[in-house]
């Protein structure tokens, strides 16, 4: 599943770079809980979520390709350098919010 991992890593790195460029930090706060968005952990969350969605649909053949199909709309390959879509920013923002709310550190490192 190397292709899926690379795609998730690319999306995560672009998101974190954009967050840092926009806010000056990779820290985010949700309902008073602050956490650092770490690219490797975010990529793992994107990877896991995509695979879980495909498997929850009963798919067992070509899971990587189908999971990539879920993540590809997040990446705009028509820009140089690549960028992520508004949908991606929104969805990752929700993931990060859920992770902070639930104390789930798969996508980020939580600090209180």
Characterization of this structure:
The structure is a single chain. A 3-stranded antiparallel sheet has the order 1-2-5. Strands 3-4 form a two-stranded antiparallel sheet. α1 packs parallel to α3 and α2 packs across α3. The protein has one domain. It is 59% helix and 15% strand. The longest helix has 22 residues. By secondary structure, it is of the alpha+beta class. The N and C termini lie far apart (34 Å). β3 and β4 form a beta hairpin.
For the largest sheet, list the strands in their spatial order: 1-2-5
Strand fraction: 15-25%
State the share of residues found in helices, binned by percent. Answer: 55-70%
Given helix and strand content, the structural type is alpha+beta
Morphology call:
globular
What is the gyration radius calculated from CA atoms? 14 Å
Query: Kindly state the mean pLDDT as a whole number?
Result: 91
Tally of DSSP helical segments: 4
Task: Report the biggest beta sheet as strand number plus sense, adding barrel if it closes.
Answer: 3 strands, antiparallel
Total domain count: 1
Topology as a string of helices (H) and strands (E): HEEHHEEHE
- End-to-end C-alpha gap: 34 Å
Q: Tally of extended strands? A: 5
Low-confidence stretches: none
